[in-house]
Amino acid sequence: MFLLDTLNITYPIIQAPMAGATTPELAATVSNFGGLGSLGSGMTAPNVLTSQINTIKSLTDRPFMINLMVLSEYESSTFDTEIPAWLSEYYQDNNIEFTLLECPSQRFAEQLQVLYDNPVPVASFTFGIISAEQVQRLQGLGTRVIGTANHPLEAKAWSEIGADAVCVQGVEAGGHRGGWLPQSESDPLGLLTLIGQTRACTDIPLIAAGGIMTGQDIKAVQAAGAELAQMGTAFLTTDQCGINDTYKQALLDASHSRRSSETRLTRLFSGKLARGLLNDYLRDFAQFESADELPPYPQLNAMSKSMRAHASKNMDAEHQSLWAGQGVTLVKQESTLELLERLVKTLEA
User: Fold this and answer.
1) What is the reported pLDDT for 1?
2) What's the pTM value of the predicted model, to 2 decimals?
């Protein structure tokens, strides 16, 4: 397939770039195996990102991917909304010290500069779209550029500015929705529908994401018109993943019917739609789910950070963002290599 050659990988498997969950060791393990390992770096300070890129380069000589979140300077630097009263009350009631950083997120321009200064084999982008000039600059440094789309029009936009490929993310996917056009929220598309509609409007190579857990799933999205599969949830319970033990155990419990495996698209943690396991936080504050009532991303994400950190420290799964896709019942406690070997065994059967 075209993308296998373009990205110089052996197997049609991309380990999804999940910010806060991926590690240089996870990315290098996948890349050394012959897939494309990746690092979710949207929340990473530029100096740390430089260090992590150097670590991956020391662990593998194979291609790997860095993923950034496209945010405007205003979005990255501005708090123009107040913390919701119900969240403030939660902090008071639970004696949680609440502090806000000066800015709600890292500055995208500074993170992108790292990729100019310390080029990587593949760069992917989510939450927005970069310019044709930025695409060309990265490609001139030897970096392949991959966009993210929840709607065919977003994929078409990436094609028009010269991206090498687009990751089409179906509504089944765990974590944050990667699109930015209003159409991607008003009528969210399932993965197979999204692949079909995107194929009808652009011939850019496609990577499929959303609910892909098995080798059979990879074959299905390839039959539908995607070349590669990007998998996130399946890697969360493997040994190289960086999530905390409480989060990992909640996923495993969901797979063994020890807790509900229901997932929900929610804005309550970050202000942007994301899919995760249903827990007490999502139940208790469901009445505030309306986008009109919530600060936008990344402001709410910064405001809820103290709650999530407190929950993690206290092994409380009910107030963490347990991001997971609709395939969560198929997660297994295994090594990253065992997962990869299991997938490839099916692909080669």
Assistant:
1) 63
2) 0.97
